[in-house]
Design brief:
The structure holds 2 protein chains of 2 kinds. By secondary structure, chain A is an all-beta fold. Helix content of chain A is about 0%, strand content about 50%. Chain A is globular and about 40 Å long. Chain B is an all-beta fold. Chain B has no helices and 9 strands. In chain B, strands 1, 3, 4, 7, 8 and 9 form a 6-stranded mixed sheet that branches. In chain B, a hairpin with a 6-residue loop joins strand 3 and strand 4. Classes of the chains: A mainly beta, B mainly beta. Chains A and B meet through strand 10 of A and strand 7 and strand 8 of B.
């Protein structure tokens, strides 16, 4: 059974870079047919897709964030990472990682990591 | 403001049936892209509830079902139980912007 776990700093200063890692267990991120994704949820608000990466390194990002987002894969550690540049308070959110089955835009998210709260504040 | 519109809240008594709508457009649900539903209990990560319009993952009770009509999707919950109290989100694909989209979420209260 695949499980995902987010890790990274819980506090980031404005204008700096948010960096998170999602470690996958119970399955390989190099298995074809799955995208590995990041989603966020500001406190008290809904879900927003950030982007995902495929096993061949093809990456897909939300157009609203794509100029500030990098998603990378580390096959040796079986994890993938998110970098969000030049953050502001509006980037404060719980960040989730997930596995996507199906197409890059119409696929379903399952399973999910437990999420990690990142606060942007000086 | 989400491209997929859900009612902010719905409620029902134990044992009753409730439905949650997810209204889209011809560029998403109406374009025959698959849609999915998630349940998020307080303080937890979302959980896949319905996938590919009307399929349930293993472990999801058959009290939950999905359907579609035109540009709208609907989640139905029958035999409402206290543990169903949660936020529910729909998700699809918007072909105009090539983006994964979520509805704004609906809070279900079991009276």
């Amino acid at each position: 059974q695949v499980q995902l776990q987010e890790s990274g700093p819980g506090l980031v200063k404005p204008s700096q870079t948010l960096s998170l890692t999602c470690t996958v267990s119970g399955g390989s991120i190099t298995t074809g047919g799955y995208y590995w994704s990041w989603i966020r949820q500001p406190p008290g608000k809904g879900l927003e897709w950030i982007g995902h990466i495929y096993h061949n390194d093809d990456a897909f990002s939300n157009p609203s964030l794509e100029t500030r987002v990098t998603i990378l894969m580390d096959r040796s550690k079986n994890n993938f990472s998110l970098r969000l540049y030049t953050v502001t308070a509006a980037d404060t959110a719980v960040y989730f990682c997930s596995r996507v089955s199906g197409g890059p835009y119409s696929g379903r998210f399952d399973p999910w990591g437990q999420g990690t709260l990142v606060t942007v504040s000086s | 403001q989400s491209v997929l519109t859900q009612p902010p809240s719905v409620s029902g008594a134990p044992g009753q049936k409730v439905t949650i709508s997810c209204t889209g457009s011809t560029s998403n649900i109406g374009a025959d892209y698959d849609f999915h539903w998630y349940q998020q209990l307080p303080g937890t990560a979302p959980r896949l509830l319905i996938y590919d319009n009307n399929n349930r993952p293993s472990g999801v009770p058959d009290r939950f079902s999905g359907s579609k009509s035109g540009t709208s999707a609907t989640l139905a919950i029958t035999g409402l139980r206290a543990e169903d109290e949660a936020d529910y989100y729909c998700q699809s694909h918007d072909g105009t912007f090539r983006v994964v989209i979520f509805g704004g979420g609906t809070k279900l209260t079991v009276l």
